[in-house]
Design brief:
Radius of gyration: 22 Å
Distance between the termini: 62 Å
Order of helices and strands: EEHEEEEHH
Number of helices: 3
Number of strands: 6
Helix content: 25-40%
Strand content: 15-25%
Largest sheet: 4 strands, mixed
Length: 112
């Protein structure tokens, strides 16, 4: 494997971007390899590393299809559905509780 250039934090040349920066531009890496990396030093730990991709070789983000939108809506609805009372809580149910807040409160009251 060939060595890639390493730049210090905020000193990367123009034309490179991280995945998150590409996404903000409406782009994706598109199968290209990492062309460089940036490192930010930290005290008492290893450096933070971010991989950089070439903006010129990036491809546009694929649009969401109606099937993908439907699947995403179904998954989000499942995260809001309480397994105990089977009602839509209107919010994502906390994983710590495993049920909506009113059901969790009832469970605590009955246990006491």
């Amino acid at each position: 494997m060939a060595a890639i250039p390493v730049y210090r934090w905020r000193l990367a040349p123009d034309g490179y971007a991280t995945r998150r920066q590409l996404r903000a531009l409406g782009l994706r890496p598109g199968g290209q390899d990492v062309v460089a990396q940036i490192e930010r030093s930290r005290r008492r730990r290893g450096p933070l590393v971010a991989y950089l991709y070439s903006i010129d070789l990036a491809k546009p983000v694929r649009p969401m299809t109606s099937a993908k939108w439907a699947a995403l809506a179904k998954a989000n609805r499942a995260r809001r559905l309480c397994p105990r009372c089977h009602n839509d809580a209107g919010y994502v149910i906390p994983a710590e509780l495993g049920m909506c807040v009113p059901c969790a409160d009832l469970g605590e009251q009955s246990a006491a």
